Amino acid sequence: MANLLVTGGAGFIGANFVRLRRETRPDEAITVLDALTYAGRRDNLEGVADIRFVHGDIADTALVTRLLDAGIDTIVHFAAESHVDRSISDPDAFVRTNVLGTQALLRAAKTAWLDSGDGRPHRFHHVSTDEVFGSLAPHDPPFTETTPYAPNSPYAASKAASDHLVRAFHRTYGLQVTTSNCSNNFGPFQNPEKLIPLFLANALTGRALPIYGDGMNVRDWLYVADHCEGIARILDAGEVGETYNIGGGMEVPNLTVIDAICSFVDRIFAEQPELARRFPDAPAAGGRPTADLKRFVADRPGHDRRYAIDASRIADRLGFRPRHDFAEGLDRTCRWYLDHPDWWARSPAPQSLSRVA
Predict the structure, then answer these.
(1) Is residue 105 part of a domain?
(2) Choice among 60, 81, 131, 266 that is catalytic
(3) Could you report the per-residue pLDDT of 283-321, keeping only the tens digit for each?
(4) Closest CA to 135 of 11, 312, 332, 308
(5) 281 a catalytic residue
(6) Which one of the listed residues 57, 60, 73, 155 is annotated catalytic?
(7) Interatomic CA distance for residues 60 and 198, integer angstroms
């Protein structure tokens, strides 16, 4: 039975992982370490029983060492700055958290698990992204675990650096690590600066739906519950030192995602007339198409054209495949945001309406 430290466990993917882990492993000890920046919220863990929450920074090596000395044997490292647009305007924050923070966490893990000499089994699982591989042309094969790194944004570069540090601590010191590179996540608790919750919130409040460029940038979409199950499978059966891609197998252009959100809003307002009273500023409240809110805006600098994940390694070696297709995952996601308007209304506003992930 593992004794887990989940960094960034009050953020989007981290909170979903903690919820899954508590549900599937009720007797496991879980400590959540989160700095509670704009993307981390304590109420994301509301209702999750028997977890220890520590408000702190992964770069605080003394704090992390104290936590590890209390018996923790597994780190699941989600904590990261992750929004590309924010990395363009403030790359320093991404280096501090994603590079120096990961280095501090690795150093604390080495001190507690290796330098002490007790030889206890341990695992450091590092959660990364497909963005480290760069951009694909329309007919290029998907990213594999051996695709050369070619990051194009400060965010992607900072995650690539952290990936290399994790690998180096395994190769140099023998730290027992695994890494996963995931595709675009979506689902409950995602900060409204990201594409799906931003566009849904804007549709419900009558604000513009700003579309970068021609809207044909393609992403491989992964429902967050599937991602968390993939990480759990790696923790249980993954080979130390290995990297596993976790993808949804759902390549969809941004414009198609946006059109699907518009269609969902139009349909749900027709099915549930009471929504017009709850969201009177939505075009759908007056019987107008949500798509009227679409606006094309200038593309962002260095915008990668296409991501695609080859997830055959985790499927073949660990037997993991995602359970949700895009349509089902989007429906679940949109219904969750409709049911939790107070949650996204309390979230910090995105840097601008045109800033989408």
Answers:
(1) yes
(2) 131
(3) 999 999 999 999 999 998 888 899 999 999 999 999 999
(4) 308
(5) no
(6) 155
(7) 32
